[in-house]
Amino acid sequence: MSPQHHIGWFELYVNDFEKSKDFFTQLFGWEFKLSQSSDVPYWNIFTGEGSLDGGLMKKVVPEHSGQSVVLYVETDKIEETLEKAASLGGKIETWKTMISEKAGHFALFKDIDGNVIGLWSKS
């Protein structure tokens, strides 16, 4: 596999920065910092040491209303994470489902802005 084509960034389009930051901080412990290098409000997302980082952008044009990428967040506690997402205003789309014994399990939920977020666990 070529090391040149790894995923290097992600962006989530949201309606309300403060609510979305609070949602992901409470759910995953992610940290946010307002970017100083953007002409529009843009929040950098720090997901953890050695992990992929990204950004929050405001939904401002019609093409931001849909979604074409699903990000999967690794967790050992899929059910607990789904329940926490729901308690924070998210909506469970797919409960914990086995992919295969080798590949593990996944689940899907929608965040408070309707973005589909995946969860993945090896066990």
Task: Explain how this protein is built.
- The protein is an alpha/beta fold.
- The chain has one domain: 2,3-Dihydroxybiphenyl 1,2-Dioxygenase, domain 1 (Roll), CATH 3.10.180.
- 18% of the residues lie in helices and 37% in strands.
- The protein contains two helices and eight strands.
- It has a four-stranded mixed beta sheet with strand order 1-4-3-2, with helices on one face. A four-stranded mixed beta sheet has the order 5-8-7-6, covered by helices on one side.
- Strand 2 and strand 3 form a beta hairpin.
- The longest helix has 12 residues.
- It is globular and about 45 Å long.
Proportion in β-strands: 35-45%
- What structural category do the secondary elements indicate? alpha/beta
The CATH fourth-level homologous superfamily? 2,3-Dihydroxybiphenyl 1,2-Dioxygenase, domain 1
Task: Indicate the CATH class.
Answer: Alpha Beta
Estimate nothing, just give the exact number of structural domains.
Answer: 1
Number of helical elements: 2
Q: Examine the coordinates and then state which fold CATH places here, giving the name of the CATH topology.
A: 2,3-Dihydroxybiphenyl 1,2-Dioxygenase, domain 1
